[in-house]
Amino acid sequence: MELGETIYDTAIREIKEETNLDIEKKDLKIFNIYSGEEQHHIYPNKDEIYFVNIIFEINKVNGNLKKDSESIELRYFDICNLPSNITKPFECVKKDLLKQIL
């Protein structure tokens, strides 16, 4: 998040930078905010952090997926077939998403 930027502006900018997809603010809806112990993560280099994750539902995207230098790969997944190696901070997001659709 840049100084003075809203969470919506941050999401729109970061999605564009990291995926090449265009999003409009009207198409963003907050799904949930995650923080606390569930968001604890230790990177392979031993850096330790606590995320605050704001997860959005996005109703419409424009453009084609194109990875940037920070990404290894970009793909869409069916919610019921997400990869098994999701990092711990996103397990609760996955659980809540599955609760919503099942």
Q: Overview of this structure, please?
A:
- By secondary structure, this protein is an alpha+beta fold.
- It has a single domain (7-101), classed as Nucleoside Triphosphate Pyrophosphohydrolase, CATH 3.90.79.10.
- Helices cover 26% and strands 19% of the residues.
- It is built from two helices and four strands, in the order H-E-E-E-E-H.
- It has helices at 7-19, 88-101; strands at residues 28-34, 40-42, 48-50, 53-58.
- It has a two-stranded antiparallel ribbon with strand order 1-4.
- The chain is globular, with a radius of gyration of 15 Å.
- The mean pLDDT is 91.
Features:
two-stranded antiparallel ribbon, alpha+beta, 102 residues, Nucleoside Triphosphate Pyrophosphohydrolase, single chain, 2 helices, 26% helix
Topology of this protein?
Layout: H1 7-19, E1 28-34, E2 40-42, E3 48-50, E4 53-58, H2 88-101
Antiparallel strand pairs: 1-4, 2-3
